[in-house]
């Protein structure tokens, strides 16, 4: 099994050298479409190794046999000294088209498994961790010791540098080689002359010219094509847990009908056995990964697939996908009927989401598809399924994905979404739909629309969103005409305070983004008196040159608001120290207050800067701020590499109001809901709890000086109302979360993976007793959005009675 974030370079087999049957490339700066080194392993015989010898494997992706007479493979240490020499191993014979050629090297004292019979033998003791191997036309030792010099040597057909090798192709050497891992090229044998991109680490899988593997069987390099099924079926590969019992093993002649083909991204095809077993845990479908090579099969083909079983993890915390890698497929017949699709609906999906492993991996737990939704989806991995008339719970993304639910009565929101209401009550019916049909435009849908009719495809898994349906037949979209909301205008005696995450806005953004966001403020929010903005960047955005000011950004934004019919807002912010507030590198993200000076005044008190802490100052008439605007305890570790809260003192009808704009640390780093660790760890929560405690302490200092102080705390808190973050923020009843005052089916402002949830909040102190609160849905439920957050607004009645 292996883990990789770059799916295009994954390989479960060997590093292959594909040899051209015609002319040699002029230098390895010209990628070879035929001759490449397919696998390099220097850990043989080392402590912890299984194999007893080092090896170099070559491969031929050409259509004719490649003659190796007079060729050699040569080895150079990873960090060559002046006295280092290339060590030569001469080759004889040839490599069949599609075949492998195995060169055994020195043996060590460890290991228990011999290589298959080598096609050539050398005596080089290769390093397990770092070195360079070259395939050379000739047997005279190379003399080059730099990448540039070797690139100029026309005798080199292919070259692989691994570990920390100085001599390598492209931007960097292949990584991950060790006593237990080789570096290997993808099944397609693609050569882009970039070792870091073309090769990846995996368990060593040597194959010789006869197709024999180190286990004595026939490997995926076998040039023969079986015409009769082997002994292994798809359900044997899938097994009764999330991990295949055949992981890492070669399989031959696995029968199945091709049910779907993917020709973009991670290319491959799915097969499904037409003779299922009686165990609902053992899936009958599996993905056959062909790497960068388009599959040479069609839907309806009856095939026999040989290759290596692999559990591919899209990332370290996700579940895996069972695959057959380094495949060879024999087509027995075409145009066959496909297996009947499994119907996924409310009756089929269990109410429970996933089994618990106390935070550990669920990989080895026996599947219980009738009890847990994720177990059901896992048992259907690679299987043909069908859904019908499903409501959209997550709008179409820029990546042509749409979230639907097969359980329409599960936690519905007022506008058609599915509410995420607690850590223990997951929405089991959510599934992401993608399309394998590249000839049709993907439907653009909003929350509450319906994917009508039947959608049929295969169940797959991805790091973002987990289980998904790769559609071969896509239903049609029924538009339910979701509309963007417009909140009412505040009355004369009401102070309107809003929060809006404007998603990394800077002066280099297109005018259309400014105009859309401005319309949200002027029209949809009805021009609040105060707007607390999150994600305002410095004036040149991600450019890292020391710029920290946001004047040009805010000038463009406030001009756009005026053009949209809003007031001429003034602004206040505290510029961060360069590179100290997290967010996009170079962006110097910060919180900003906009305010309408014709309705509300800002109390300026000098001295507020990036490092000065604001304090509550008791007076005979109540409480004031030591600086305004100011920051809450910016030296605290809670704010390290994170946005600091902005505090400002305003006056409305002569009455003081304190506003605290927040943008807490993101949820990045948390384990996914659908991942292999259950229950998932929420590691990012620790910092947000610390940040919430800092804000709570400051609010309490204001209330200690004046228990009737009007405090509005708002912003993108990046956490849920039922989270420990919210408990820390509201401790001692210092603040009340207004989201809880709405009906349950309206308590959301953000949609993620088909879940309607709340990360943005407005909270008020006990001194604010009369208010009208609204989440204004203009972004999160729509495919066309200026921000992924919906703004919120509270209208506070400010008078002598508070």
Task: Explain this structure.
- The protein has 802 residues and is mainly β.
- The protein is built from 8 helices and 42 strands.
- Strands 30, 33, 34, 35, 36, 37 and 40 form a 7-stranded mixed sheet that branches. A 6-stranded mixed sheet has the order 9-8-3-2-12-13. A 6-stranded mixed sheet has the order 28-29-27-26-42-41, with helices on one face.
- Helix 5 crosses helix 6 and helix 7 packs parallel to helix 8.
A few lines on this structure:
Helix content is 9%, strand content 31%.
Give the overall silhouette.
globular
Using only C-alpha atoms, the radius of gyration works out to 31 Å
* Termini Cα gap: 64 Å
Which residues form runs of ≥5 with pLDDT under 50?
A: 1-27, 215-224
Strand fraction band? 25-35%
Number of distinct helices: 8
Draw up the topology in text:
Layout: E1 2-3, E2 35-41, E3 53-60, E4 66-67, E5 71-77, E6 87-90, E7 94-95, E8 100-107, E9 120-121, E10 131-137, H1 147-151, E11 156-162, E12 182-185, H2 195-198, E13 199-202, H3 234-238, E14 250-262, E15 267-272, E16 285-291, E17 302-313, E18 321-333, E19 342-343, H4 373-379, E20 384-394, E21 402-405, E22 430-435, E23 450-462, E24 466-473, E25 476-478, E26 494-505, H5 511-524, E27 530-536, H6 551-563, E28 570-572, E29 590-595, E30 601-602, E31 616-619, E32 622-625, E33 630-631, E34 646-652, E35 655-663, H7 685-705, E36 711-716, H8 724-730, E37 736-737, E38 750-752, E39 755-757, E40 760-764, E41 771-775, E42 792-797
Parallel strand pairs: 1-17, 8-9, 16-18, 19-20, 22-24, 26-27, 35-36
Antiparallel strand pairs: 2-3, 2-12, 3-8, 4-7, 5-6, 5-10, 10-11, 12-13, 14-15, 14-17, 15-16, 17-18, 20-21, 20-23, 21-22, 23-24, 23-25, 26-42, 27-29, 28-29, 30-34, 31-32, 33-34, 34-35, 36-40, 37-40, 38-39, 41-42
